[in-house]
Amino acid sequence: MSRGSDRMNQPGRNLHFQHCLLLSSDYSAAMKVTKLLHTRYRLNDLDASVRFYREVLGLEEIRRNKSPRGSELVFLKAPESDEQIELCHFPNSGPVQVQPDLTHLAFEVDSLEEFGKHLTKLGHKYSDGPTYKENGGGFAFIDAPEGYEIELIQCPRELGKASSY
Fold first, then answer.
1. Exposed, middle or buried by CB within 10 Å (0-12, 13-18, 19+), for 152?
2. Tens digit of pLDDT for each residue in 86-116?
């Protein structure tokens, strides 16, 4: 038997260990994240992506800065959201190759039909959809310049904003 297991078998030692587990589980229940601040997408062409997110999706640029390791960062947000998207250009880590169906961002739109017209005016089109449901909700996808998917969601008329589509 190892010395560590001898210590665990001492009278009262196992009880202390169980108490620590209870305390740590209480601690982890009390310690939690409070809100999502941003999501990072690494890119090869920062300028093309910023232009897309601003001109096509209408996101607002919040700030730009360079990280201590040399990454060029641009933070954007949708008009009615607190969460931000961090676009990151860091050539030293190699080229970005976005895998299909790896991740996507989802944004609410008032009308998929009207947003589709907006896309056409800008020389873009949906890559998938739109797909409508009986309740008036629907969704469609467009590809960002680097290949990240963007889902656009039209919420059901009767349920209103921030509801299931």
1. buried
2. 999 998 888 989 988 888 999 999 999 999 9
Instruction: Answer whether 61's CB lies under 8 Å from 70's CB.
Output: no
- pTM as predicted: 0.76
Q: Which domains does the chain have, with CATH numbers?
A: 36-95 (3.10.180.10), 98-165 (3.10.180.10)
- Round to whole Å and give the CA distance between 52 and 150: 11
User: In the beta sheet, which residues pair with residue 150?
Assistant: 105, 142
Two tokens, residue 81:
């959201």
Alpha-carbon span 120 to 117, nearest angstrom: 5
138-143/72-77 β-pairing: unpaired
d(CA 27, CA 139): 40
